[in-house]
């Protein structure tokens, strides 16, 4: 229940109200908040009633001068934890702690301006981050500022109109292995990093996402029919082994992929080797039914795979790509083999053919040029 009191200032009489808000964890007593400066008792009563309503539905902000670092962490726990995938939550948390708070840490929410937000974006681009990375790193800030508007901490979000221009250092063309590089990579992979061979070989010859591959369980693979069914993606929640899997990225990501005969044999051999590890380790083996895992059955740590990939590429002396570049390489191989853009879209699990066309348009153009050159050579030999 709010209490009200009239008091005098040099500008005349004003009204204030006091309400009890939260429990102080140190003393166990109720904390009291006072708001001053109302011209009439009725005005004070209206604002007090609104504050009490916010208290009851959990949207009350005790300190309107809240620091952005505090507000971001409250936003993350209150509005995101348990409401988004663990992987998304962890991405937001990393962006807040690694990028946003170090830049904005000394600012209050209402001190953040559009100019400051643009400077933050420019700072990330100057650090060499790609456009997509910058979008990911600014997403928590953008979402939190929108919530600040809802909570009436600010009148409008300062993130409106912010431009995320492509970095000059960003390679506009997708990176993939070309021609003989594919064979060189596979041979070096087999010779120097055999434990990762089945995983990287599967990524190369299916085009599935890394998270989709790591979430594969043996029930998802039919080695007799030669298919892989994509039903989950991996969350990297190592603290909770019962919560390693999440829904795929989009509806189109749910798909069944037909495997080449040579890949089926690789996976059969991989399963035999995995069973040997189970017998060897006995009770020390963590049987999560994962197709691709460490020798003890546990998931790969997040950074381990890219480090292994980098080592292999360096030894093979081929184009330096990310693991996602194997997906691009597969798409290029499909197009080179005569697959239509629609067939590539369905195999990769893109939402629309437009997405596939946007990503691989320049590849398609290059192939058309090669085909035209072949036609011209044929015409000169046989028709002209």
TrEMBL record:
Q: Which UniProt keywords apply?
A: DNA integration, DNA recombination, DNA-binding
Question: DNA-binding among the record's keywords?
Answer: yes
GO molecular function terms noted in the UniProt entry: DNA binding
GO biological process per UniProt: DNA integration; DNA recombination
UniProt xrefs under InterPro entries: AP2-like_int_N, CB, DNA_brk_join_enz, Integrase-like_cat_sf, Integrase_catalytic, Integrase_recombinase_N, Integrase_SAM-like_N, Tyrosine_recombinase_XerCD
Similarity-based family: Belongs to the 'phage' integrase family.
Protein name listed in UniProt: Site-specific integrase
Question: In which organism is this protein found?
Answer: Bacillus pseudomycoides
């Amino acid at each position: 229940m709010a209490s009200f009191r009239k008091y005098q200032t040099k500008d005349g009489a004003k009204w204030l109200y006091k309400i009890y808000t939260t429990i102080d964890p140190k003393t166990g007593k109720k904390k009291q908040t006072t708001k001053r400066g109302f011209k009439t008792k009725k005005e004070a009563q209206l604002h007090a009633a609104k504050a009490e309503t916010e208290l009851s539905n959990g949207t009350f902000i005790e300190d309107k001068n809240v620091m952005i670092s505090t507000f971001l962490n409250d936003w993350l726990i209150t509005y995101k934890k348990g409401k988004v995938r663990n992987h998304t939550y962890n991405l937001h948390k990393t962006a807040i702690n690694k990028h946003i708070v170090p830049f904005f840490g000394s600012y209050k929410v209402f001190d953040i301006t559009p100019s400051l937000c643009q400077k933050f974006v420019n700072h990330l681009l100057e650090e060499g981050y790609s456009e997509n990375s910058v979008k990911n790193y600014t997403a928590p800030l953008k979402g939190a500022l929108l919530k600040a508007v809802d909570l009436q901490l600010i009148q409008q979000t300062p993130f409106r109109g912010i431009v995320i221009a492509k970095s000059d250092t960003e390679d506009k063309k997708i990176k993939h292995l070309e021609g003989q590089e594919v064979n060189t990579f596979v041979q070096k992979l087999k010779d120097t990093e055999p434990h990762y061979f089945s995983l990287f070989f599967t990524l190369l010859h299916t085009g599935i996402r890394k998270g989709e591959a790591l979430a594969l369980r043996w029930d998802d693979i039919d080695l007799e029919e030669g298919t892989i069914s994509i039903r989950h993606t991996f969350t990297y929640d190592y603290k909770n082994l019962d919560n390693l899997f999440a829904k795929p990225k989009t509806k189109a990501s749910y798909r069944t992929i037909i495997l080449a005969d040579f890949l089926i044999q690789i996976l059969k051999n991989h399963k035999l080797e995995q069973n040997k590890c189970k017998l060897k380790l006995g009770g020390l083996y963590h049987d999560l039914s994962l197709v691709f895992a460490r020798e003890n059955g546990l998931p790969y740590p997040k950074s381990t795979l890219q480090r292994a990939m980098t080592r292999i590429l360096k030894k093979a002396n081929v184009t330096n790509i990310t693991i996602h570049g194997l997906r691009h390489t597969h798409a290029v191989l499909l197009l080179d083999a005569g697959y239509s853009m629609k067939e590539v879209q369905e195999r990769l699990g893109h939402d629309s053919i437009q997405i596939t066309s946007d990503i691989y348009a320049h590849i398609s153009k290059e192939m058309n040029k090669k085909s035209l050159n072949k036609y011209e050579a044929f015409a000169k030999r046989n028709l002209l």
